[in-house]
Amino acid sequence: MTSASGQGEYFGMNDPESRKGGIGVRSPLSRAMVLLLAVVCGAAVANIYYAQPLLPVISKALGVSEGAGGLIVTSSQVGYALSLALLVPLGDVLERRRLVSGLLALSAVALLGAAASPSLGALYASVALVGVTSAVAQIVVPMAASLAADHERGAVVGTVMSGLLIGIMLARTVAGMLAQFGNWRLVYVFAAGVMVVLAIVLRRVLPLVRPAAKTPYPQLLRSVATLVRTESLLRRRMALAAVGMGAFTVLWTASSFLLAGPVYGYGPAIIGLFGLVGVVGAAAATVAGRLADRGRARQVTTGGLILLTASWGVLVLAGRGGPLGLGALMVGIVALNMAQQALLISHQSVLYRRVPHARSRVTTALMVSAFAGSTVTSALTAALYPVVGWAGVSALGAAIALIGLAIWSLELFRPSPAEPVADPSAGVADGADVDVHAAGPSGAHPDDTHPRPHTPEIPQETSHA
Q1: In the Cβ-directed half-sphere of 393, how many Cα atoms lie within 13 Å?
Q2: Do 23 and 452 form a contact (C-beta atoms < 8 A)?
Q3: Whole-angstrom Cα distance, residue 173 to residue 108?
Q4: Engineering a disulfide at 263: which of 114, 321, 378, 438 sits with its beta carbon 3.0 to 4.6 angstroms away?
Q5: CA 239 → CA 271, 304, 374, 445, 446, distances in Å?
Q6: d(CA 137, CA 233)
């Protein structure tokens, strides 16, 4: 059996070069570690999307309307948003290996509760708890940014975020296949098993990421509000995150009803396969990350918003059915997913550069806004689709994208400050003591007791659009 230390070496965390001179000179993360973190993000966030292609099936099985069934996704997103606000900031002050593995284990318990739910009310409660624990994905992203070397941070974040998008997309495919050959409850049992495996693996190989100091929890939460109040760049990026996630949710909530309806008449397995089309959009994450490393995050944002808006002009044609409608749906899915992924990476890149000492708290603010937008549009789409159909919800998606362009025009003409700022508080630092040599319970090194100074050297962001 491979030892914890040996696993750490395989995952690139025991590099002796990183200990030269007794100072933690951070070496690049290994490809294996980056991919593992990407898998964790994807598997965790998939838990709140398994239900989307199953909404018609679950609604029928529980004897409820499609509108009521559509709120299953809304319930999980409410839990996810609450967790983003209340749990993710703890990534700045708690040891993250224990935090991440513990949340994955709790997620497995919540998923088993969803599988055993006897009624819609019980399922609402269970998936809300699943949403709470699945926010572990947003603890992993800033942790990956902290572990990465300066020159690779954008690319690492892009790869981890591509795992997140692939998880969202493959959740539909996996859920559809399992429901087709078993039933919808089997999907949640499968997801619980995945969480157990990942909790065990991460506990063995994830490096210790010790906080530099402890801060009282109320003060930690207040610091998030302070960041939002004082950073105009954060406020604008939060608004754009809500726009991108809102448009994304409109598409994937409504498309399940469109594909299961009389225009196409597909079963859950076929509906789930459309998630594979969306996986193509994950490629945008790594490209956007590399561009951000070169200081071109603003161009990525501009292109992403234009593509997001244009995608709805194609998607509306999907309501016609037939080969033309099917082709339009597939092209629109790829375009919208590429746009959303590029936007997220651009937001994270500029904000992690602006506030390097509080990456978990910045992630909290950004993702709370994103999933607030997702929750609102999920409920709107479920309520509006039976009334206005595909054309109506496509108009809703296009209107949301146009709002994003209007917000971005303000940033283009009146740019927010984007230079890195110093930590105003000595009590909390996201650049915590990262013990890159501790890869498991037996992997700690007693001589790694001094904080490792780390100053971001991310390229200057260009000011033109």
Answers
A1: 29
A2: yes
A3: 20
A4: 321
A5: 31, 14, 12, 43, 45
A6: 23
What does the pLDDT look like over 85-112, one tens digit per residue? 888 888 777 888 888 999 999 999 999 9
The residue written with tokens 């949640």 in the block is 188
Which tens digit of pLDDT belongs to each residue from 384-417? 999 999 999 999 999 999 999 999 999 898 888 8
Question: What does residue 392 show for φ and ψ, rounded to 5 degrees?
Answer: -65, -45
In terms of Cβ atoms closer than 10 Å to its own Cβ (0-12, 13-18, 19+), residue 226 is middle
Average pLDDT, the chain: 80
Q: How far apart are CA 149 and CA 336, in angstroms?
A: 31
Residue type, 55: L
The dihedrals phi and psi of 15, each to the nearest 5 degrees, come to -70, 115
Q: How far is CA 104 from CA 87, 129, 390, 434, in A?
A: 13, 12, 36, 21
Q: What is the pLDDT of residues 26-50, one digit of tens each?
A: 566 788 888 999 999 999 999 988 8
Q: Tens of pLDDT along 270-303?
A: 887 887 887 877 777 777 777 877 778 889 999 9
Which long-range CB contacts under 8 A does 458-462 form with residues at least 24 apart? 458/150, 458/153, 458/154, 458/293, 458/295, 458/349, 458/352, 458/353, 458/420, 459/293, 459/294, 459/295, 460/295, 461/295, 461/296, 461/297, 461/298, 461/350, 461/353, 461/418, 462/295, 462/296, 462/298, 462/299
Block residue for tokens 């079963």? 267
**Domains of the chain from N-terminus onward:** 7-14+26-418+430-435 (1.20.1250.20)
Residue with tokens 């990534």: 91
- DSSP result, 78-125: HHHHHHHHHTGGGGGTS-HHHHHHHHHHHHHHHHHHHHT--SHHHHHH
* Amino acid letter, 23: I
